[in-house]
Specification:
Layout lengths: L1 H10 L7 H12 L8 H7 L3 E4 L9 E3 L3 E4 L5 H17 L6 H12 L2 H5 L9 H14 L6
Parallel strand pairs: 1-3
Antiparallel strand pairs: 2-3
Helix pairs in contact: 1-5, 2-5, 4-5
The protein binds zinc ion.
């Protein structure tokens, strides 16, 4: 279900921000943490607290607030990391004019920024179908050749 929605949004052609803007923003957040950082470190670097709440309304797995992101807990670490990255992406894009397709592009860029790929470093722990989407986006946008 989530996979279908995300893939459809990414393929919708509704993204507004350039690949360069997305990649630069993701890189800028990663620049403030070490190469062994995880999603919690990224949030901390941005001054964002992570709150877990299993009482979120049905259909809502996360919220981006001014100084925190609230996410529904998950037994799957990969799904939890994806939720946190997604809310962080909402936070990073903030008041900038953007679409939800841009938020998903930013989510995936945060999980596996170009610089980490260049260095041979792995992505954060996100579901495999997300990694496949990220690889497809990089191949299409040619931000890095032969990614
Ligand atoms: Zn969202």
């Amino acid at each position: 279900m989530l996979r279908t929605v995300v893939t459809a949004e990414l393929r919708s052609g509704l993204a507004l921000l350039s690949d360069e803007e997305i990649e630069a923003e993701a890189q800028s957040l990663w620049a403030g943490v070490s190469s062994v950082a995880d999603v919690e470190d990224l949030a901390r670097a941005r001054g964002i607290a992570i709150e877990h709440d299993d009482g979120l309304p049905a259909g809502c797995d996360g919220l981006a607030l001014e100084h925190a992101v609230v996410v529904r807990p998950s037994r799957s670490r990969a799904l939890l990391v994806l939720r946190i990255l997604h809310e962080l992406a909402h936070h990073l894009l903030g008041a900038r004019v953007h679409t939800h397709a841009d938020v998903w592009r930013m989510t995936l860029a945060l999980a596996w920024p170009v610089e980490r790929i260049r260095q041979g470093l792995p992505s954060l722990d996100i579901p495999p179908w997300c990694l496949a989407l990220r690889a497809a986006i990089l191949a299409e946008c040619r931000v890095i050749p032969a990614a």
